[in-house]
Amino acid sequence: MYYTQILLFILLFSISFNNHHIHARPPPVFGENRPEDATIHHLLGKNLPVNQTIQDLLEKKLPQNQTLYTFSGGFCWNCFTDALQFLFAHNWARAQHLEIPLVWDIEVEKYAKWWANQRKSDCKLQHSFPEGDFKLGENIFWGSGSVWSPIDAVKAWVDEEKYYSYRSNSCVGDQMCGHYTQVVWKNTRRIGCARVVCDTGDVFMTCNYDPPGNYLGERPY
Prior knowledge:
Layout: E1 20-25, H1 54-59, H2 68-73, H3 81-95, E2 103-104, H4 106-118, E3 137-143, H5 150-158, E4 164-165, E5 170-171, H6 178-183, E6 190-197, E7 203-210
Parallel strand pairs: 2-6
Antiparallel strand pairs: 1-3, 3-7, 4-5, 6-7
Helix pairs in contact: 3-5
């Protein structure tokens, strides 16, 4: 029911990624290793129309139910552009598996903002919870330069789908896929994220998930 209208309209992006790193917070399903830099081609499907950017689409006042961005707005009251971009990209990925869309949670967002501000001085790619002491799921992202957007971060996480084998419920080829599985985790309901431009001029982003995902022996969907 949630995705009847969404799946009729496909919004997609194509962007090349260099100089970025991502990390997911356990409970780990497959272990944690910093992935090598990769090129992000598509989240799903086709490119945007010629001369049109994702920001162009986000800034337009499109009719209700025409895009997933509009749909996600209903789950993110009083959110600003960054929050809606985070939520939009997560719910788009979840829609591909007909998972319940996430709701933006102000308390989870406060936690994410707190941690992003802790990293503002050094932009260190570091998780907020000590190893083994997680309370929320967590994906983090670092990008060189100040242009990285929330959609860029989520696209980087979702691009790991190609490394996830549903049949074996594991990552293939010694690659990382835990960021992707957390994004689409079936039991996660609430999300809060933050983006900060660090004193170094680079970007740090973090998303927290409640309840957390990536439980050993369970599939994401």
